[in-house]
Amino acid sequence: DAKTTQPNSMESNEEEPVHLPCNHSTISGTDYIHWYRQLPSQGPEYVIHGLTSNVNNRMASLAIAEDRKSSTLILHRATLRDAAVYYCILTGIQGAQKLVFGQGTRLTINP
Amino acid sequence: NAGVTQTPKFQVLKTGQSMTLQCAQDMNHEYMSWYRQDPGMGLRLIHYSVGAGITDQGEVPNGYNVSRSTTEDFPLRLLSAAPSQTSVYFCASSYSAGTGADTQYFGPGTRLTVL
């Protein structure tokens, strides 16, 4: 499975945008880019996913580089509830049920 | 929908005891899986199932058994608990569209301590 690289931690202020980067230089043409987050003492929850084009949903936006070797999760206006560990995960055709979690990025939101 | 439910929420075992962690989903998902999360780490896949009657091993299957007799339920059995199995266990389910776009729904977790 292709690997992803994320910063261990990031910090931002409430009501400001947050850009969480992810590098995946060995991504294959059929790999989807998924983001999950894990709030304290909870199970992971799905945030967003994409293949080639940028994606938006009610939680966040996903910006995918043209060469697909990196992506950025964008939280447009962070709240205290967005403090969590964010995981960037690649999934192949047979791999969406077998997620490989790295260390993720621990996001701290300052009031 | 209740989504993915797990019982119990907390459990303390002594070394050598056995127990079953329960997982159920009411979304008619074909795929179910079990992960463990050790302190400060990401989740690791233990076992997964692609449908009733079909299971397979994940990254860390040793010491655990699973079976899938119904679509809704996917119990995880610890036959002889060891301190190394102290962890938080998460169950997940997903619908399969046959692509990498499938998204997983996770339960709230079971926190297990083995003394």
Care to count the β-strands of chain A? 9
Secondary structure: helix percent of chain A? under 10%
Shape of chain B: globular
- Would you tell me the structural class of the helices and strands of chain B? mainly beta
Strand content of chain A: over 45%
Largest sheet properties of chain B: 7 strands, mixed
Overall body shape of chain A: globular
Q: What structural class do the secondary elements of chain A suggest?
A: mainly beta
Order of helices and strands of chain A: EEEEEEEEE
Helices and strands of chain B, in order, run as EEEEEEEEEEE
Q: Count the helices of chain B. How many?
A: 0
Greatest interface by residues involved:
A-B, 28 and 29 residues
- The stretches of 5 or more residues of chain A where confidence is low (pLDDT under 50) are none
Average pLDDT figure of chain A: 93
Number of strands of chain B: 11
User: Radius of gyration of chain A over alpha carbons?
Assistant: 13 Å
Distance between the termini of chain A: 38 Å
- How many H/I helical runs of chain A? 0
Describe the overall structure:
The complex is a heterodimer of chains A (111) and B (115). Chain A has 111 residues and is an all-beta fold. Chain A has strands at 9-13, 18-23, 32-38, 45-50, 55-56, 61-64, 70-75, 84-91, 105-110. In chain A, a hairpin with a 6-residue loop joins strand 3 (32-38) and strand 4. Chain A is globular, with a radius of gyration of 13 Å. By secondary structure, chain B is mostly beta strands. Chain B has strands at residues 4-7, 10-13, 19-25, 31-37, 43-51, 54-57, 64-66, 76-78, 87-94, 105-106, 110-114. In chain B, strands 2, 4, 5, 6, 9, 10 and 11 form a 7-stranded mixed sheet that branches. The N and C termini of chain B lie far apart (36 Å). The A-B interface holds A 30-32, 34, 36, 41-46, 49, 51, 87, 90-93, 95-104 and B 4, 31, 33, 35, 41-45, 48, 50, 58-59, 90, 92, 94, 96, 98-109.
